[in-house]
Design brief:
The protein is built from 1 helix and 32 strands. By secondary structure, it is mainly beta. The strands form 8 sheets. Strands 1-32-31-30 form a 4-stranded antiparallel beta sheet, with no helix packed on it. A 4-stranded antiparallel beta sheet has the order 2-3-4-5, with no helix packed on it. A 4-stranded antiparallel beta sheet has the order 6-7-8-9. The longest helix has 5 residues. The two termini are 25 Å apart.
Length: 390
């Protein structure tokens, strides 16, 4: 049952978990809450009974990386490191911590990367990927992608002309490969299998692409029709198809080419699903996503609208999580629970997790029978309990 949420959007970066309950009539009970010093943007990671959060200090001069007990919220350890700058939307990390084995990796908005021991926070190595590999341009939002682990390689995107993407040895921080290309985008990457290759798929500043995990070689590139996307939402892989959604080009689905490495073919387009930051959710052949106050259910691969539902909270910062039967949509301090259905929007529950209108930029996490969510400067843990049969 929900054994870990160790990275951005869960175990497989797709927003899926093992189990979610229909909440009781009074809503999911609050188990504990702890105040945070900053207003985190990065998602929550949870594994082995530990909650990892990328916080910011009161004075906005330091990054504060925190490890808490998942059952009680008690502080286990924290690492406070200088991180000074001036970014739009604050200076806190945008990158969800990555937990694997006995290690956790953090990345600051200013390019500082740290590997720590998960049990006690002892620093193993650190690097700054912008100063070592990046483009050196003025940061606007900072580095936003969450570190990705594949085959022992820590994949990062500093956006340097000669080092658009880099792979570091996850244990030592040593460079394995770097690949030339474009400046960084603001989304996270995923891994997939293309033929006999493991590949990384994601956006740089202007294009969607795939890179070979073993060598860093770029395998294909797609330049969308409309320019100036910020490329924040994460791509999804569905068999031999890639699904992306961005604010200027809408939702698109591509069929990866044969032989592997040839350019993908556009097979579906839905311009109305055009989120700024929210990543859609793929469940049982249906794609759910929000933009501009509307929740859409689309059929894959045509991306035809099956149904739509409007609500003030259904905007571009919503997070969606599913167990295959129901979906939790979390935004603006609210939780909406509804069925995975082709028929219509069927609401099963609705409650306030925080005060209405509270922005929730940090992606929540599901671990065992707990939901962890950050609203402004509060981390709250809710118990996942089922509605009693009447």
């Amino acid at each position: 049952m929900n054994s870990a949420w160790p990275q951005w959007r869960g175990p497989d970066r797709n927003g899926l978990c093992d189990w979610l309950p229909v909440p009781p009539e009074g809503g999911l009970p609050l188990k504990w809450e702890v105040p945070l010093q900053g207003e985190p943007n990065a998602g929550v990671a949870v594994a082995d009974g530990r909650v990892l959060v990328a916080d910011r200090d009161f004075l906005n001069q330091f990054d504060r990386f925190v490890c808490l007990n998942a059952d009680s919220g008690e502080l286990i350890w924290q690492m406070i490191v200088p991180s000074i700058g001036d970014l739009d939307y604050g200076n806190s990390s945008r990158s969800t911590p990555l937990v694997h084995g006995d290690s956790v990796w953090f990345q600051s908005a200013f390019g500082n990367v740290y590997r720590c021991r998960a049990k006690d926070g002892q620093l193993v190595w650190q690097s700054n990927v912008i100063s070592q590999y990046g483009a050196g341009r003025e940061l606007v939002w900072g580095l936003c992608s969450s570190p990705l682990l594949s085959g022992g390689k820590l994949i990062l995107n500093p956006g340097g002309r000669q080092s658009s993407l880099v792979a570091l040895n996850a244990q030592t921080g040593e460079l394995i490969w770097s690949t030339p290309g474009n400046d960084y985008g603001y989304g996270s990457f995923i891994t997939a299998r293309m033929g006999t290759r493991d590949v990384v798929i994601g956006h740089d500043k202007t294009t969607l692409g795939a890179w070979d995990v073993a060598s860093g070689k770029r395998l294909w590139s797609i330049t969308p029709e409309e320019s100036d996307d910020f490329n924040v939402p994460t791509p999804l892989v569905d068999g031999n198809r890639v699904i992306v959604a961005t604010e200027n080009n809408g939702c698109r689905i591509y069929r990866m080419g044969e032989p592997p490495g040839s350019p993908p073919e556009l097979i579906g387009h839905q311009p109305l699903l055009n989120p700024e930051t929210s990543t859609p959710l793929l469940v049982n052949g249906l794609l759910y996503g929000v933009s501009e106050g509307t929740l859409y259910c689309l059929k894959v691969p045509s991306l035809e609208i099956v149904w739509e539902k409007t609500a003030t909270a259904f905007h571009s910062h919503a997070s969606l999580i599913s167990d295959g039967d129901m979906i939790y949509l979390i935004a603006d301090g609210e939780l909406f629970v509804f069925s995975v259905s082709e028929e219509s929007y069927q609401e099963l529950g609705h409650q306030e997790l925080f005060r209405l209108g509270t922005p929730i930029y940090s992606h929540p996490a599901i671990y065992k029978n707990q939901l962890f969510a950050i609203g402004k400067n509060q981390l709250r843990c809710f118990e996942l309990v089922e509605e009693e049969e009447k």
